[in-house]
Amino acid sequence: MVQQPPPAAPGRDYPRPCAHPILYESDLQSLGATDEDVDVGPVPQGEYWRIEHAATEDLTTASTEVRIGIVRSSVFVPLQEQEAPSAARLYWADRPIHLSTGDRLRARWTGTTSGDRLRLYVNGVSMLAGGA
Asked: Which domains does the chain show, CATH number per domain?
């Protein structure tokens, strides 16, 4: 969920803020599929996202791997991977992730057990494209 800045007051001639926070938490119950995906986005037209922190967690059992990456034009591009993550332990991307208009952030768990509770935490900023 992206928080939108308030609209400018009537009669005021100033631009909306250049950046506003993105805070997101997802709690998913695994169906035991080959891959379990959680997406954040897509980035709205005219915006750019800088994700400062993305963390994943399987609260129930260990899985085979977890990947964090970008979905661009329906193609998942993993940027980071943790093999054999332990249960109830956070794993996070160790560098910022940049998303352009239309992109989505994805966390993908492989080898989960049916009923596992999967979590994704995201913190970042949304900026107007071309703005600082």
From this structure: 19-128 (2.60.120.1330)
Question: Each residue of 60-100: pLDDT tens digit?
Answer: 888 889 999 999 999 999 999 988 888 888 888 889 999 99
In Å, the largest CA–CA distance within the chain is: 57
Structure tokens at 98: 């940049």
85 φ/ψ sector (left φ>0, alpha ψ -120 to 50, else beta): beta
Question: pTM for this structure?
Answer: 0.80
